[in-house]
Design a protein that fits this description.
With about 500 residues, the protein is α/β, with parallel strands linked by helices. About 40% of the residues lie in helices and about 20% in strands. The chain has 3 domains: about 5-150, Rossmann fold (3-Layer(aba) Sandwich); about 170-245; about 270-455, P-loop containing nucleotide triphosphate hydrolases (Rossmann fold), CATH 3.40.50.
């Protein structure tokens, strides 16, 4: 027996249909991953299922109580808890309800590595049914056995986890393209042959040159039968072409494209410096005598547990750091505080950008925000707001990027495009992220906060983890780990920290 059932669910935004779902059902023990691009309506659907917003079309029946973990809201400037600490506390509060149906919207956002692992274990062990929205494909694979794919206003149900769904979707796309190309080739062959026969029939009507009138009339009479036969064959082939089952050109998934450059590159050795900074809230000390220097062109990832002061350090870095005169800072805030929520999306980009409107529209189109150009920031989904904040950076003339959890709320395609962009960018980057995948591919150096101290490590995540292992390993394993560290450091073309 189902515990939740919806029929003819329809949500409209003005003249636009956000989604239309004929039927959905949830049964005890279901593990459902709700996936789709930013703006597809995932959070809206969860709000409907939880009863957080009214249902305007269709029917929705609940036979069990629902626990709902909403998307984490970044803390206010005066709040002492970090975003990760608040996210974990909110999930614990919802789990305490022990509801037969749990709805979770991006539960790993803002969490550190420890917190993310705790979410994995908690959701895997949860006794009730779960509907999960997440852009963490590892979590979707570990927890979910069914995928609800929300795209272009429709929802498909697929039995399997996210990776299995992706493979199936790619097989379907490949087959759709195969059918389309076969249809196009067969139609083209029939039409070309029909055209050849039509031309042949037409040429039969013409009498040879130097033929008299009486001979021409005789020629025409002798050619009438074969000419008619050829013309009928041409007509038959055209009819066959028209009767072929039409295969429409398959829609291509939207490709995210990003480009970021600066007309004013930094010429010195260092892009920024912060010296001997102590940070805290009241009597609580976060950092003691922290110093951080960013070499020009470096990509530094700031790491540490939730609540250790990463976001606070980024803000202090911008307020108290020393920068070259030609430094132009692009800042991505975890809470997108820099976005004017009452302004239209396009107007927001125009405010600080030197680019013409045509290029701004191109940036938004490349991020999949064409339909949202005239909307206010407040009407956008969490993922669309994150894209809007990143669009401001793409539209700026920055040579130093400071990013605080830029992948939160973003769909997987956008994250992949961002990774490619930052890998190729020649500017300087300082970033907070708990995304190990992104850190492994981007970081050339790490700044680690631990026990109120900031330590800078010249090398990537693999080299850092090998270094941590080496410090804890028995003496017999030390030599092997040191060799791993050397190889990891060489991969980033950085000098090894070992003698």
């Amino acid at each position: 027996m189902w515990i939740l059932q919806g029929t003819d669910l329809l949500v409209e935004l003005g003249e636009r249909t956000l989604f239309q779902i004929p039927r959905l059902e949830v049964f005890p023990g279901d593990r459902i991953g709700l996936v789709g691009p930013n703006g597809a309506g995932k959070t809206t659907l969860l709000n409907l299922l939880a009863g957080a917003i009214p249902l305007e079309h269709g029917t929705l029946r609940r036979e069990a109580s629902v626990g709902y973990l909403k998307q984490a809201v970044p803390p206010s400037p005066k709040e002492t808890l970090s975003g990760g600490e608040r996210a974990k506390a909110a999930l614990k509060e919802v789990l305490a309800q022990n509801a037969p149906l749990l709805l979770a919207d991006e539960p790993t956002n803002n969490l550190d590595v420890e917190g993310i692992q705790w979410v994995y274990q908690t959701l895997e062990a949860y006794s009730g049914a779960v509907i999960l929205v997440s852009h963490d494909r590892g979590l979707l694979d570990a927890v979910c056995s069914t995928i609800w794919a929300l795209e272009e206003g429709q929802m498909r149900v697929f039995p399997g986890n996210y990776s299995q769904w992706e493979k199936q979707r790619q097989r379907e796309r490949d087959f759709a393209w195969f059918e389309y190309t076969q249809y196009q080739a067969q139609r083209s062959r029939l039409e070309q042959e029909a055209q050849r026969l039509s031309q042949q029939a037409h040429s039969m009507r013409k009498a040879p040159k130097r033929m008299g009138n009486s001979e021409a009339r005789l020629h025409k009479g002798t050619r009438t039968i074969p000419q008619g036969t050829v013309a009928r064959r041409a007509a038959t082939l055209l009819k066959k072409a028209e009767l072929l089952e039409v295969k429409e050109r398959p829609s291509q998934p939207h490709t995210i494209k990003m480009s970021l450059g600066s007309a004013h590159p930094l010429r010195g050795k260092y892009a920024a410096r912060l010296q001997a900074l102590t940070l805290g809230f009241g009597e609580r000390i976060l950092l003691k005598e922290a110093s951080l220097t960013l070499p020009v062109g470096s990509r530094t990832v700031l790491m540490g547990k939730n609540g250790c002061g990463k976001t606070t350090l980024l803000k202090a870095f911008m307020e108290r750091g020393t920068f070259p005169q030609e430094a132009r800072i692009g800042y991505f805030s975890q809470g997108q505080e820099g976005l004017p929520f009452s302004s239209r999306l396009l107007d927001t980009l125009k405010e600080d950008s030197p680019l013409p409107e045509s290029q701004l529209r191109c940036i938004l189109a490349n991020l999949g925000l064409t339909a949202q150009i005239g909307q206010s920031i407040s009407s956008l989904s969490g993922g669309e707001r994150a894209k809007a904040a990143f669009a401001k950076l793409l539209a700026s003339d920055c040579n130093l990027l400071i990013l605080d959890e830029p992948t939160n709320h973003m769909d997987l395609e956008t994250v992949a495009a961002m990774e490619q962009l930052l890998q190729c960018w020649e500017g300087t980057l300082l970033m907070v992220t708990h995304d190990r995948w992104l850190t492994k591919r981007l970081a050339t150096r790490l700044a680690v906060i631990e026990d109120q101290r900031l330590t800078v490590f010249e090398g990537g995540l693999d080299a850092w983890e090998a270094h941590q292992q080496a410090q804890q390993a028995p003496s017999g394993e030390l030599e092997s780990l040191m060799e791993q560290m050397r190889r990891a450091a060489e991969a980033f073309q950085q000098p090894s920290i070992l003698p």
